Amino acid sequence: MYILLFPVKPRGLVALCGAAIAGGLAAGCGYSPLHSALENTRWCARAGTSLVPDADAVTAALEGARAELARHGALASNGEYPCLHVELTRVREAPRGIQAVQGQPVARGISVEATGRAWLQNAPEDKPAFETGELSRIGRAAAGDAALENDRPARLQASRNLGIALARSALGLPTPKRETEDLP
């Protein structure tokens, strides 16, 4: 122990390590949740101004946001402020797996992407306390579904998943902006 490149005695090293550990425990790592000031706050969820003329998709996004807030114990039972406003900004669809049937292209599946944003507001006249930015989620339907004639189930799935993602982002949980599949 005494054959070191610099003179260090075991007692000094033990004391130095003990002081470093105690200092580290006292200071902590410095991490705090993104919205720690909003901890133990319950929010209502409301629809913002929707740019999509689909009331069912907006309702599905709100249901997803409310379900995620409730899962984390952050859903207020009253409709008062503070409130999470959910806005659906775009819904688009693309065919998946195109097949030729009687010389005509037919989609064998469909993907629907719902895009939206959300913001937290403490009172009706206040500026938003937090904005999620745009997030998007994808819903899918296969050829065996009646959804190819009617894309409603895929739209509702994408919208509900978007509401869940918006609520997770507002809660400060890690949430990717987009899913990995890109629509053309």
Verbal overview:
This protein has 184 residues and is an alpha+beta fold. The protein has a single domain (41-170), classed as Double Stranded RNA Binding Domain. Helices cover 29% and strands 28% of the residues. It contains three helices and five strands; from the N terminus they run αβαββββα. It has helices spanning 10-27, 55-71, 152-170, and strands spanning 44-47, 83-101, 104-121, 130-131, 135-142. Strands 1, 2, 3, 4 and 5 form a five-stranded mixed beta sheet that branches. A hairpin with a 2-residue loop joins strand 2 and strand 3. The longest helix has 19 residues, at 152-170. The chain is elongated, with a radius of gyration of 25 Å. The model has no long low-confidence stretch (mean pLDDT 78).
List the defining traits of the structure above.
184 residues, alpha+beta, Double Stranded RNA Binding Domain, five-stranded mixed beta sheet, 3 helices, 5 strands
Structure summary, number of beta strands: 5
Low-confidence blocks of residues: none
Oligomer: single chain
Q: Radius of gyration from the CA trace?
A: 25 Å
Shape type: elongated
Mean pLDDT: 78
The portion of residues forming beta strands comes to 25-35%
User: How would you classify the helix and strand content by structural class?
Assistant: alpha+beta
Q: What is the annotated CATH architecture?
A: 2-Layer Sandwich
How far the N terminus sits from the C terminus, by CA atoms, comes to 67 Å
Reported for the largest beta sheet, the result is:
5 strands, mixed
CATH topology: Double Stranded RNA Binding Domain
Give the helix level as a range of percent.
25-40%
CATH class: Alpha Beta
Count of individual domains: 1
Number of helices: 3
N-to-C series of helices and strands = HEHEEEEH
